[in-house]
């Protein structure tokens, strides 16, 4: 009997395709915690909608404020919602600038004020206890270019910088300067990052120009010091990682490593990126979640891959950095969604989203400490043993724990079947194994999916899987 072991998924993560990937990788990994205890698959804590029906726009900015509240900003309607520390949401303001659209494109707390960007105006309000939004100024300063889509904010060297088309504006101790740095047109500043004490400018031209640049500026010279051109439609965002820089660029699933002078191709997210199939990572849809870089992947067109909240990391520096789909949003959908912002509030992770399946809905999810993901799963790469003869396969799933009311299910596809077939199983409680009751149908190619379902009686308990064995003669 021949044996294929599938374990240590934390060392491989999601593969590059249905056929290839680094050792220990699988073609799908959805909803599993693969890093907290290396070698064990556990269902993650689920995302639960917290905002009820309060939010009616995609929030691309979530601001955790020193007044004890968190503020969320409508990206098209200019509404400002407050989330208290108890998780209660309310509408506190609707931005109304004198010119341009009211949608808030970014916001930041800086030296006693909350600053927020609309198309043509920089607004601000004094941070209070709590903040009184009735005393705000929606027209504190005027942007020169008034870019309608991008006004990213980044504080570097105690100065707050704001992108505005080909200009980098700044606020230094309350004084606004519209053109602290200018770059060549037609480049547009789409995202801002940081390396050491320098600021990074991620640029964009338009969706048809497959060329953009990353610029590095020390914040005091007359011009930037380093520029690197890449064949992408723009630098979308910088992942929140300590001591090195990863960037999402273009709309074909590429992540890049910045070595200080150049962007180097780092990882491509598995998917069908042909034609008009596109996805992106918004400027504020990144977060460092207790050492793991998280990012939200949003559909642009065509739903090229599973969309949701990904991580790109490992247990510690001795482990490889791997890709994992940590969570899907609370609607359960992995297509036709956008994730506007991801933010850690204390030990609570907030995720803003828009779902256009059926009718368009919006919401704010939080990681739920009281409930596991109801159904997490992994699926193997294609197992190609011998194309000249069919083989009979079977499967065992070893577990460390199987709480009452929980289950582990086994599915298969033979010879590239279009859908999964569930296999009847038996449970050996002495050896802690779930076993396929019968052999799979004869196959020259095989794919296996393992599904881990949380307990129906205690929703915060789920199986813990340590090994998957696929056997054939």
What does this structure look like?
The protein has 473 residues and is mainly β. Strands 1, 3, 4, 37, 40, 41 and 43 form a 7-stranded antiparallel sheet that branches. The mean pLDDT is 96.
Task: Give a topology summary.
Elements: E1 2-6, E2 28-30, E3 32-33, E4 41-43, E5 45-49, E6 59-64, E7 70-74, E8 79-83, E9 89-94, E10 106-110, E11 113-117, E12 121-126, E13 137-142, E14 153-156, E15 159-164, E16 167-172, E17 175-182, E18 188-195, E19 198-204, E20 212-217, E21 226-230, E22 235-238, E23 245-249, E24 254-258, E25 263-268, E26 278-280, E27 286-289, E28 292-296, E29 298-301, E30 309-313, E31 322-327, E32 337-345, E33 348-355, E34 361-372, E35 375-379, E36 383-384, E37 393-401, E38 407-414, E39 421-423, E40 425-428, E41 433-436, E42 445-453, E43 464-472
Antiparallel strand pairs: 1-43, 2-35, 3-4, 4-43, 5-34, 6-7, 7-8, 8-9, 10-11, 11-12, 12-13, 14-15, 15-16, 16-17, 18-19, 19-20, 20-21, 22-23, 23-24, 24-25, 26-29, 27-28, 28-30, 30-31, 32-33, 33-34, 35-42, 36-42, 37-41, 37-43, 38-39, 38-42, 40-41
Output the structural class.
mainly beta
Roughly how much helix do the residues carry, as a percent range?
A: under 10%
| Overall pLDDT | 96
How does the major sheet shape up? 7 strands, antiparallel
Q: Helix count? A: 0
Shape: globular
Rg for CA atoms: 24 Å
**Uncertain regions: pLDDT < 50 for 5+ in a row?**
none
